[in-house]
Amino acid sequence: MDIQAIVSLDRTECAVQCNSKKRILEIISDIAASNNPQIEAATVLTSLLAREKMGSTGIGNGIALPHGRLPELEQVIAIIVTSTPAIDFDAIDDKPVDIFFTLLVPEAQTEGHLQTLAMVAQKLSDKTIVKAIRNASTSSDIVSALQ
């Protein structure tokens, strides 16, 4: 799967004002629900919070990959949000996070879910891409950085 298949301008937000882990997950949930009528923000938030209880999805270097499974989905979707300032997200390196690349996947797609997470993690290991995302001033800039 190509990253462009799951990234969409209407599910991307740049420089969101936020100061807590729960609030950023609420914002992500609201974005997901507003662009996907088959899902509700509360359902998304519950899924993301349940995953965070198992361990933080903060992978280090100011990046988090929150993810959850939803029975209502038929295909993988991504929600990409940058925050200002970076927030404490219990990341593995204990550094604050300002790039949130969220994946929501159909409940039945276990193997595909892992492959998609690996693809996103690989893309975000590219320092040039991460720098472009951090320097983005619009949602379009973020989407362009991922192409």
From TrEMBL:
Q: Which GO terms describe its molecular function?
A: protein kinase activator activity; protein-N(PI)-phosphohistidine-sugar phosphotransferase activity
Which Pfam families does the UniProt record give?
A: PTS_EIIA_2
For this entry, list what GO says about its biological process.
Answer: phosphoenolpyruvate-dependent sugar phosphotransferase system
Q: Which residues form the PTS EIIA type-2 domain?
A: 5-147
Coiled coil spans: none
Q: Which NCBIfam families match?
A: nitro_reg_IIA (TIGR01419)
This one is known as PTS IIA-like nitrogen-regulatory protein PtsN
- The species this protein belongs to is Alteromonas sediminis
| Gene symbol of the encoding locus | ptsN
